[in-house]
Design goal:
7-stranded mixed β-sheet, Double-stranded beta-helix, alpha+beta, 24% helix, 285 residues, 25% strand
Length: 285
């Protein structure tokens, strides 16, 4: 069966048919997925029943895998994070613990791995355990958000750089640096990235934002944060957002260079677990 991309929201987000990563993926299929990511940003693969090795083999074809070395959320697999309400053994996270506190920041609009250099390029999230009514995950089209900015503002921000920090985004939810391990503090210092990025496959520009941005380089802190807040509010308007309603065994992948995303609140008793993996850019950004 040939691969098809079925648009879900205009030119943002598409369902991929004819691709099952559990049976292996050919190089030409990887290239088609790359084209799909450049065109749609978010790809939905339904009914992906596969093991961890298959997911890892698939994601590694898009770049160097992210090493899951944050002790606060580390799993047994070196390249996976489990995101949800329970650990790999189905045990609920302790209330107020470091892992629960760290994962709460997923409720903020963010870009995966932006506090790293090179940052995350492609993320992959597989639904392992879902409640009867799963909370949706929302994605923002940063390319369309850039296109909709006034020309004067585009000119003002193109070339500016923001500093991205895990500690800044977690502080918004009350997490202090004392809750991070020393290894994490040493291995994940804040990083600067441009506020506007260029996609080499499409030639289009997009905003590159996240709740991780603490300030704009070279600007007074208050002025920079006001600009970032303004851009974040603009980029996350409903007209730029795709909301994904999860189904069992869904696998989502997205291009972090021109999308943002966030989890939505879930307080049910039924466990929920999504398995994340990702790859980094091949060069610093």
């Amino acid at each position: 069966m040939p691969m098809e991309f079925i648009p879900l929201r205009g030119d943002f987000a598409a369902e991929v048919r004819g691709l099952h990563i559990g049976v292996g993926v050919a190089p030409e299929q990887i290239e088609s997925v790359e084209d799909g990511l450049a065109r749609f940003g978010v790809l939905v693969l339904r009914n992906q029943c596969h093991g961890d090795d298959a997911q890892q083999a698939f994601i590694e074809q898009f770049g160097p895998p992210v090493v899951a070395n944050l002790k606060e959320i580390k799993s047994r697999h070196p390249h996976f994070y489990d995101i949800g309400t329970v650990d790999e053994d189905g045990i609920p996270f302790p209330p107020g613990g470091a892992k629960e506190s760290f994962l709460l920041a997923n409720l903020l609009w963010h870009t995966d791995g932006s506090p790293m250099q090179p940052p995350t390029r492609v993320s992959c999230l597989h639904a392992k355990v879902l409640p009867p009514v799963p909370p949706p995950t929302e994605y923002a089209d940063m390319r369309a958000a850039w296109d909709a900015l006034p020309a004067g503002l585009q000119q003002e921000i193109d070339g500016l750089r923001g500093e991205h920090s895990y500690y800044h985004s977690r502080a918004k939810l009350g997490m202090t640096q004392e809750q991070f391990s020393q290894d994490t503090l040493n291995s994940r210092p804040p990083q600067e990235h441009p506020l506007v990025r260029h996609n080499p496959r499409t030639g289009r520009k997009a905003l590159y934002l996240a709740a991780h941005i603490s300030h704009v380089a070279g600007w007074p802190v208050d002025k920079g944060r006001a600009l970032v807040d303004r851009l974040m509010a603009h980029a996350t308007q409903p007209r730029f957002v795709y909301s994904h309603d999860w189904q069992p065994n869904d696998l989502l992948m997205w291009d972090d260079s021109w999308t943002m995303h966030r989890a939505t609140p879930y307080h049910g008793a039924h466990p929920r677990n999504l398995r994340w993996s990702g790859v980094r850019e091949r060069a610093p950004v």
